[in-house]
Amino acid sequence: SMFDYPENLRHPTPWYVEKGMPYFSPAVLFDKAYTLAAGKSLTLRYRILIHPGRADRDMLKSEWKAFLKTTDIEVRMESAKKLLALGMAMVTYSGDYEVKFPDDMRALHKYGNLKKKDLEWLLENVVYLGKGRTDSTIRPNTVLAYDKTLLAKGKGTNVLFGDLRVAFRTPEQLKKLGIKPSRKTNVEVEVEVEKKGTTDVLPADSDAQVEGEPTVSKLLTALQKNEKYVHIREPIIQMVEEIGDKEPISFLVEQLQSENRRRS
């Protein structure tokens, strides 16, 4: 009996063997039983948990249930399947709308065989970041959506990326993607965005203050809370990696405007 190892790149996923490929591989869409014939061998491409005892069905079911409780894997697997369905629906939709993704997930109800109950689940549990994006301009690591309900538990969450893979990311990995659990603040932040060409620019007078600290890190938090500004998050994160997140927002604004002039 093989259980997905929590540190696998795409944990949680079931394991399967594709016809003609003699090894196990994790995938969300496939969840099949596989019998290994006597004398045959498999090359295992990923780290896994292997039950070393006798293959007693009832005992294995009990052990599997215990494993689910300790890892939350069942919830993660269900989340991953629905995020993958979201990605497929987005691509199908984009084929009818000049490779553009919808501004709202509700527009996907007729695409990619997305079931009504799955769409309802997505609307309740997922942060959708496809607004304003097109299939032709996103990158493989562009974040299209993530499970906010899993995120709130503090152990990480499933993320749908631009190449349509769904992967579980730890809090440390999510931070690098600009994804953090929502936090209520005493001041409501509004950052006006002026779009020029292909680069998004923050006006010079847009110093946003959250709890009295007008730093870049606070701006990132504000951007994360408001889906309206998702399309400028990635370039800002890249800039922050160079200048640090303790600089005042005005400094970041200057850097962004300078970059925009350079590209014009």
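[next item in queue]
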Amino acid sequence: EWGLHRLSCLTKLHINGGTIFPNLVFFPDPEGGNGMSLPASLTEVHIENFPNLEYLSSEFQNLISLEMLEISDCPKLTYFPDQGLPRSLLQLFILDCPGLRQRWKRERGKYWPIIAHIPCIEIEWRSLFDPEKDYSV
């Protein structure tokens, strides 16, 4: 059985949906049907250009070594796992994902409780922790 999860030494993954996965709604697929179940060894994940992606699945909780997550050009992305992101996550970068804008407001957004532990968060090239600005995108 093929799948990314079999690559147990893989530490970095950069995936561009583009024309390969234009209709993917969940990432990674919670059923593992597209071979996208991810290995726990990943420390960096870059997800870009998934035009129909709406959900990051709860499988992200299994990425116990994940330190950096970058998501860009996913215009329909609106939902993160209810359980949050891994406690190991140190950096989160979000760019061109308008579906997340209101959910990320510091201390008020829906997702604040599940991202507040991340020391470095940048959304649309601005730090969520900039003391000079009331962050709202």
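[queue empty]
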